[in-house]
Design goal:
The chain is an all-alpha fold and about 200 residues long. α2 packs antiparallel against α6, α2 crosses α9 and α8 packs across α9. Helices cover about 55% and strands about 0% of the residues. It has a two-stranded parallel sheet.
Length: about 200
């Protein structure tokens, strides 16, 4: 598919409609909904060692398999449920990642109990305001930073798994904790304008 609209995008968006749609509508948009943040963190963990496109194509299957990423339901998953998930060809059938998702659901509940919301806890790492970068080349974009280091360390202390600093940084980029669109990308300014409407 050619880029018919002639918009300048981050090079990684490519031409696949799924990836382009994700880049244009989701990536870098600040997320404050607890459940959506939980889903994004779990999916970023599931992506470890794989391409993000693989996860995007399976995202709806993941939602169906994991009760729409309802942490209250996931926290109660039994060994029987794990067996069902391991036989589900629509998701990533990796026992460690499946058990991690269930473990993280339990830890999520404790975070909410302790901090009032998962969103408050996570956004606290950037003092409630997205980090605005000004990259001109994708080679400049890091795979981690001091914030993702801190987030990863704290999440691990809270008992989460599959939350290394690289996973945390990818999560931060996706969930809008940082604007890592290139300055030449049409979404860069759109995201900055979105901050104003959200009072960020």
């Amino acid at each position: 598919m050619e880029n018919l609209d002639k918009k300048i995008r981050c090079p990684w968006a490519g031409n696949d409609p799924i990836y382009v749609g994700y880049h244009d509508k989701e990536w870098g948009v600040p997320v404050f909904d607890d459940k959506v943040l939980f889903e994004m963190l779990i999916l970023d963990g599931a992506q470890a060692g794989l391409s993000w496109m693989t996860i995007l194509k399976k995202r709806e299957n993941f939602r169906k398999a994991f009760d729409n990423f309802d942490p209250y339901k996931m926290a109660k998953y039994s060994e029987k449920k794990i067996g069902e998930l391991l036989s589900d060809v629509g998701i990533i059938r990796n026992r460690l990642k499946i058990e991690s998702a269930i473990n993280n659901a339990n830890k999520y509940l404790k975070i909410v109990e302790k901090h009032g919301s998962f969103s408050n806890f996570l956004w606290g790492f950037v003092d409630g305001r997205p980090i605005v970068n000004r990259w001109v080349d994708v080679k400049q974009i890091p795979t981690s930073n001091e914030v993702s280091d801190k987030m990863s360390k704290q999440l691990k202390l809270e008992g989460f798994t599959f939350v290394g600093t690289t996973i945390c940084y990818a999560f931060m980029q996706a969930a809008g904790f940082v604007n890592d669109h290139l300055v030449s990308c049409f979404r860069y300014e759109e995201i900055l304008n979105l901050y104003k409407t959200l009072n960020l």
